[in-house]
Write a structure and sequence with these properties.
Elements: H1 2-28, H2 30-52, H3 59-84, H4 88-111, H5 116-133, H6 150-171, H7 177-197, H8 209-232, H9 235-242, H10 245-256, H11 263-279
Helix pairs in contact: 1-2, 1-8, 1-9, 1-10, 2-7, 2-8, 3-4, 3-6, 3-7, 4-5, 4-6, 4-9, 5-10, 5-11, 8-9
C-alpha cells in the first residue's frame, strides 16, 4: 500500500509539474523550459542531499542513474521533434504506452508475475495512458507508414528506459538523492548542449520565474516519490502508477485553464481509477 501511495503521489506531482512546464513553455519555448526546470530542480536536489547527509553511493548506481537521465532527456527531445514534424496524434499515445509497458515486462522478469488483479489493473492503466495521451486534437490517429512510428517508439523507449534504469539504480544503493542528482545532472547537460547547439538565448523573462520554479519543484517531487515507490514495492506497479501523470495534467488544465476534456480522455480517467482500485486489492 505504501508503494501504491508513493506511485500515485508521483503521478500527481509529475502531472502538476507538466502542467507548470506547459505554462513555462509558452513563455520560454519547450526546450528552454525543460532545461531551466531541470537545472533548478538539480539545485534543489543538492540542497536536499546536503541537509539529509546521505552516504555517497558507489559508482555503479550513479552511472546507471546518469544513463537513465540521458535516455529520459533524449526521449523528451525525440518526442518534441516528432510533434514538430506533425505526428502529435501518434507521438503522445504511442510513446506514453511504450513507456508504461516496458517496466511491466522488465518488472515481471525481475520480481515474478504480479497478482491476477494487479495484472488486470496494468491493462486498465495502459488503456488509461493511451486514451488520456491522445488529447483533443482534431487530427485523427492514423499511421500511414511504419516509419511514422519510429520517432514515437524511440521516445517511449527513452521514457521506459528511465523508469527501468532508475529502478536498477535504486536497488543498488540505499541513497535516495544522489541517484537523482546523477540522473538530473546528465539529463541537464544533454539538454544544455542541445539548446546551445540551437543558439537559443538562456535568459528567463521576469514573468516566467514562478512557473519555472513551480515546474522544477513539482518535477523533482515526482521523481522523489517514484524512487520511494521503487524502494517500497515492485518496479512494474511503481512505474505504471507513476505513468498515470497525464491524467493530473489534463485535470489541472480543465480546472484552471478551462480547457475541454475530450470523451476519450474522460474514458481514460475512468480507466485510471479502475486500475488504481484493482492494484490496491
Amino acid at each position: 500500500m505504501l508503494s501504491i501511495l508513493f506511485g500515485l503521489t508521483s503521478a500527481l506531482t509529475w502531472g502538476a509539474g507538466d502542467f507548470a512546464g506547459g505554462l513555462s513553455s509558452r513563455k520560454l519555448g519547450a526546450y528552454r523550459a525543460v532545461l531551466f526546470g531541470d537545472f533548478f530542480g538539480l539545485l534543489l536536489l543538492f540542497v536536499a542531499a546536503g541537509i539529509y547527509r546521505e552516504d555517497f553511493p558507489a559508482l555503479y548506481p550513479l552511472l546507471i542513474a546518469a544513463l537513465a537521465g540521458m535516455l529520459g532527456s533524449m526521449g523528451l527531445l525525440v518526442l518534441y521533434f516528432s510533434m514538430i514534424k506533425g505526428q502529435m496524434s501518434i507521438a503522445a499515445p504511442v510513446s506514453a504506452l511504450l513507456a508504461a509497458t516496458l517496466p511491466v515486462i522488465v518488472g515481471g522478469m525481475l520480481d515474478g508475475l504480479p497478482k491476477p488483479l494487479q495484472f488486470l489493473g496494468f491493462g486498465f492503466a495502459l488503456v488509461a495512458v493511451w486514451m488520456i495521451s491522445q488529447g483533443d486534437s482534431n487530427e485523427k490517429f492514423h499511421i500511414g507508414r511504419l516509419a511514422d512510428l519510429r520517432l514515437p517508439l524511440l521516445a517511449g523507449l527513452g521514457f521506459g528506459s528511465y523508469f527501468v534504469l532508475m529502478g536498477a539504480a535504486t536497488r543498488a544503493t540505499t541513497s535516495t538523492f544522489w541517484p537523482m542528482i546523477s540522473s538530473r545532472t546528465a539529463g541537464t547537460l544533454l539538454l544544455l548542449a542541445f539548446v546551445l547547439a540551437r543558439r537559443e538565448l538562456l535568459g528567463v523573462p521576469r514573468n516566467a520565474w514562478k512557473v519555472v520554479l513551480a515546474n522544477a519543484i513539482l518535477d523533482v517531487s515526482g521523481n522523489l516519490f517514484y524512487i520511494l515507490a521503487l524502494k517500497t514495492g515492485r518496479l512494474d506497479v511503481s512505474a505504471v502508477l507513476s505513468s498515470l501523470y497525464p491524467g493530473a495534467t489534463v485535470l489541472l488544465a480543465w480546472l484552471i485553464l478551462k480547457e475541454r476534456i475530450s470523451r476519450n480522455q474522460w474514458l481514460g480517467i475512468v480507466a485510471a481509477l479502475i486500475a488504481i482500485a484493482l492494484m490496491t486489492l
